[in-house]
Amino acid sequence: MKPLSEVTEREYFVSVGQRPGMFVGKTSFHMLTAFLTGYDQHALRHGGPGLTGWHDWLVARRGRDCNHAWPGQILHIALPNGWDDLWNLPPEDEQQAIKVLFELLDEFAAEREAAQDSQTSG
Hints:
The chain is mainly α. 66% of the residues lie in helices and 0% in strands.
């Protein structure tokens, strides 16, 4: 296992997605989005990219804009038929939202890594 200082953002997100309860206690979509928002703010405060571009990437991915922040964009993608109560998702919807969150986050991080690699090698 690599020391945390040597783990890429993408590898870090994968580890959070594999063991979310280890990072947030009770595994829930809302706890994970709060965790990732905190991650983003810390990274930005300390000179990292954080989740810069994540919301716009999701809007482009979804193909339509709405006024939801990125957690709402994830829910629209994960639960295309909608939801009744944002704060009380049924367990199967909660699991689907978390699964899709980390799949999309991995795609976003992979694209960002590829773009950074092409900039440094070009």
